[in-house]
Amino acid sequence: MNKTTYLGVTLAYRRFSMSTWKTESLLDLGVVGINEKVDGTYTDLLGKLEDVKGIPGPKPKSFEPQLETKKSKDGNIELTMDARSANFIKKAIEADRKRHDDLRFFLYSNIFVSVWGAFETYSQMLFEEILTSKPEMLKSNEVITLNDVISNRSSIVEMLVEKQVETIGHFKIDELLKYYKNKVNYSPTPVQTRKIKDYYFVRNVIAHKSGIIRESQRGKLPSGIKISSDEIQLSEAFLKRAIKDIEKIVKDIELVIEDKFFKKPNKSSKKDAQKARASS
Fold this sequence. Notes:
Layout: H1 11-48, E1 67-71, E2 77-81, H2 83-101, H3 103-133, H4 146-151, H5 156-169, H6 173-184, H7 190-209, E3 225-228, E4 231-234, H8 236-262, H9 267-279
Antiparallel strand pairs: 1-2, 3-4
């Protein structure tokens, strides 16, 4: 039996779901493209050079490449060369193949940052929706200027919501989780908290440092990430696990929001409320 896809109740959740669908589709298509490039372009060439071996010792100063070409009966061009030149070409092709093969790690990193961005966008859009419909949640000891009040006197709530959403956009992960707790009483499980903080750290390394990590930071990396030279490389398994974890956290948030703001009271609770009002 097919499981029903959860659609959520907010525009923020629908936008998040569409964004993650796009990134997962891009992952599948991108990997196929890279594989086709690597296999289609290089496999046949390297197969022809499979038996080429390196020549020990330094290259003689008098060395000159020996290259000959001739047209075969089927119209192709046959290339004959000395062993040293053949080995040089083989190494160049292998290096170019590795460079293209490593593009998958660049793809994984960019998709990871995109998924994290979808989570941040969800948080901002979610609270924009909630605070607009429930402006009483904006109550705080925050001070605003008279200039702000007068300049936005016809849309003071919209201005306050916009300021709050902008603040949310600058939260660090601990601040964001605390805000969720205070505003809607949502807290991730301890395991989810550890994971989301790990993903936040990885996202910052990629987004702010192009994936380059300092020696002192390496111990903070979660499993599933390798380091090539000084640059992190996300595995496909790590990326897919991260997408799944972030989707689960967002769904959990949405379920809390649905229960808190969108659930209609059942008949018994309505009767209880009416009795309470009648007796007061």
